[in-house]
Structure formats: C-alpha cells, structure tokens
C-alpha cells in the first residue's frame, strides 16, 4: 500500500503521525505478531511504530529547514515491512512548515552614505533579510521607522524575493543633520507574525552627488548550458553622471548568507568594465537559473554605489562553433592581378555532426574577392574584379563561417591583404602649360620657374626626374639657354638672354618616373624675356660719321616756322625703353631754332637777323628707359647763296635725296617684318593654348 501523512515540524517526540492499523486494515493485536517494523534508512531515527496502539509516532523533533532547506516541498519516505505473509508498504510523510523562524538580516547594523546634494527620489539599496521558513511564513514585507527625509521602497526580484531600499523624499542638509538613525523591520506572513530588525545609519556627506545607475536595474539573460569558460554573459550598463574619480565605477559581487560564493564560483566579474563571464562549466540539470547581485561603486569621496540584479537562465544547444583555418595567404598581391588569382587557402571544421557540422563561408559582397570551394571543407579566396592600389592600399577581409544547426553558430576571421604597387600611372603636371618671365641680361643660374608633377604610385614608381626636351623651334638647342634641376623641377638660365634677339622661349619639360617600364608626361613653359634699356637710340637721319657735323642751308629770309630739317632716330628696345624725345642742348646764347620733342622736326623759332655766320646746333635724342640712354647729332645751319631763288622752297619740305628715299624704304620694310614676326608668334601661342 501507499500511505501518505503530514506532520507539522514543531511536534514533540511521541506525537502521533498516522493510524497505521486503520489505514492498513489490520487488527492492532496482529501487528506485533506480524513483526511490523520500519526499514527506511532515512527515517529510522525520526519515526517509530507504536505496536500497542498501531500508530506511527515521532521519534525525534523535526526541523523542516534542516531537512529540505529552501525546497518548496519537504517529504520523507519510509518503508514498512510485515511478515506472515511478507508485505512491503511505502509511507510518505510531508513535513509542514511552521513559522518557527524569525526574519534575520545579514548584519545587525547597516551603514549607508548619501551626499547632501542628492535629489529626492535617490534610492539606497538595503540588504535582504533571511527567513528559512517557506510560503506564507517567509518574509512578507518590510517597515521603516518614521522619518521626514526617508521612506521605504520595495522591489520584487525575478524569483519573487522582495528587496527593500530607502528612498530620499526630502532634500538633506548636512549642516543641520549629519547622521540619520533608522530602524528597518522585516515581517514574515506567519501567524503569529515574526519579525527581525536592523539598525540603519545614514551618513550625509558632501561632494560626489551622482550614484552609479544600472539600466535596467533588474535584467535577465539566457545562456546556453555548456558555453566555453570565459564566455561573455553580459556587460552591465552602468552610468555615473559624475566626472573623474567620481564617475569611475568599480564592480563587485554582492553575496548573502543564503548561498555565499555559489555563483562566484561559476561567474567572474571584471571590476573595471563590468563584464560578467563564465568562470566554470554550467549545468542546466544542476541549476536552471542563477540570481547575481552586483554592486557598482564609484571612486568619489564619499563613494556612492548602485546595484544591478541579473538573472541568468540556462538553455540547452548546438554547442560547437565552426573553426576557420587560414592555410595560406599570398600578401602582398600585385594590383594588376588577373581575375581568378588565388589569394588565400582556407579550411573550415566543425566538431558537430549532421546539419550542425555543415558549414558555409561568406565574405562581404562589396569586396573584389570571392570564395571558391576546392573540395570538402576547403576553399580558395580568389580575385573577382580589378584591383587598384591607388584606390585601396589593402583590404581587411572578414570571412564568416555559419553552420546549419538550430540555433545556428557562427564565427569569423579577419586578415589583412596588402596590395602591391604596379607602375600603371604616368606622372601628371599640375598644369600642361605655364608662363614665366625673366629679365634679359640676367646672370647665368637665375631662377626662372619651378614645375611640379604628381604620381599616385608609390616607391620607385613615384620617384620623379625632370628634363628639358629639344623642341626644334630655336636655331640652337633650348638646353643652351636653360637647365632644370632633375629632382625638384626648378628651371634656371644657362646664359644671359637678349630680348632683342629672342622675346619668348618655349621650354618643353618632361617628367619621368623610375618605374619599369618608366612612364612620362610633358608640359610646356612659355618663358617671356622682359626688356631692359640696354640699347641707346640710333640716329638714322641725318646720317653722318661719328664726330662729323651735318651741313644744312636755309634761305636767309626764312620766317619763323620754317622747317629746317627732321631728325629721325630708332631704338632697338621696346615699350617705354623705346619712347624717344628730342631736344637741343643748351648753349650760352639763345638760338632762334627749336626742335619738336616728339617728332624731331627742327624749325625756326624767331625771325632771323642777317645770317652771316653759320649756327652750330646739337640735337640730343633720349629714350624713356631707366637709366635713360641718349645719342646726339651736330647740325650746322648756314644761309644759301641764292636766297631769293630758294625762298619758295621754304613753303615746302626739302626734296628728298636718293639716299633719304632708300632709308625710308628700309624703315618701312623693318616695321612690316617686325609686325609679321609678332603675328606669327601670337598665332603659335594661341594654337598651343
């Protein structure tokens, strides 16, 4: 038979538990004859059979908390044996909880600290009281002694445990009250109610006014039962609004008298980062959940602390992750590698079997690579498109392996592939055409211009050298006029330049890299020679040998305004340096002649007296350069012998001699030639631009 009894834990020894004779349907007097006895090893010192009364009675006092701890049910199993005939009966005795234990706090006194600038609503967690009783006899609620600043709050943990905390209701002033003394009472739900108390001392301090706050304060994590040791369970999200040491949080486990050190043997806590990791193997059959309490304490003075509560629930799994093995890696790889070039050989393995051991590899689609299956569990990483080192000098390639288990497990491996440079980029000038100016007659070695080029390649492929090419436009090589520094591209003069000979030079510059094969590009620098006033005016009319005078006759009766002659001069310079002005050199006595400043016409300025002796004039021609250069001619003016006959000539210009006509023709030809050369030069420059 199966017999079931229940007995409160506080019954005295000898108390009746159940009527065996009645429940077994036997006569009391037959029990002794059939040798009724207990054979259960577990209950032989707690129960005995009263054969005279046929009752099952207590042998010793029962303590449910000692027998079953915190288990919600507490049953003791007995076996009854009778002979003649031999029979075995099973007896199950439920030990009922009695409110025989008062709540008790881990410490009789709790000392707390709170800053005086704490805001109302600030919470100070308290230690949970312990009550070995179960059900309604366990802790029901908490009470706090009256206070005008503090009130009591109660949170319910995931396993139903009530956690008291003190809530600041009114702002504090340490100068008025520095220490608050309160009494915390824990009440159970038994009848009669039992209680336990703890003294709470709260010190009000200055400064660090923001405690660490755990968000959320109570959280739950599900974890596979056989995860590797060191697996990250969670990282606590704790914030402290203070700065410096006041905001630097340290973490530690909170343990209680309930099960000191039980979860600390299975989990580790990083005091700096708040990461909780597995420390030992977890077994779902041993415990399906763990309650972890963490204290977050800052380094302020005084230190403030917050509390996080984590419930870790274990689940069952596909417990082996795939493993990626990098067998070979060809790094660096040339940027001109053809599509399909093998970059790396990869292997993958998974200790699981069936679908859990079937693994597929993946890489990011935007990479110019792809995975090709060589044979089972072996893959080749090959190029799938062109590579360009100038766009990407290398790639962080992440290979992800995913199995087909449920739930899936995945792992990834990242390696770096460097791209080697190929000389596939020619150097480029910053501008294909540049303009420079240099003064004529500059000393050899004068700086003219500096060209620059850029090559996106690297190493020797980007090491540049500059040189001047011969363009064939000048009669002599351009290198006889200019040279270039092959390292930095600076152009210098080789010899003095003559504006009157060459007004502009086209200097073709080539830049070449040191790659193999070498690549190059060219640019043209137009060097314009700036004129200097290095040529004195030349008097072309009247043309007389140096040191000689030009003889000119005029009618004796010539009136003011009469054109005596015209001085014509030219200057090989240009611009302001070729602007000419004419003037008479001053003499001791006033002369009745004047010369037009710009035209060079020499005329009679005032009525002549009897012109018996010749007049000797010096006409000076001066340019507008700096410094100014000049030339002069001596003109001797004398009267004509037949003045009446020649007087009519004063109304017209002197008739030109054949020599004067030839000179004028030469001047016209020169001007036309210079104009044609200038037009051709400008046309060439415009075409190049």
Automatic annotation (TrEMBL):
Keywords: Calcium, Cell adhesion, Cell membrane, Glycoprotein, Membrane, Repeat, Signal, Transmembrane, Transmembrane helix. The chain crosses the membrane at residues 663-687. It comes from the Eukaryota. GO terms for molecular function: calcium ion binding. Pfam families: Cadherin (PF00028), Cadherin_2 (PF08266). It comes from Pterocles burchelli. This is Protocadherin gamma-C3. Gene3D superfamilies: Cadherins.
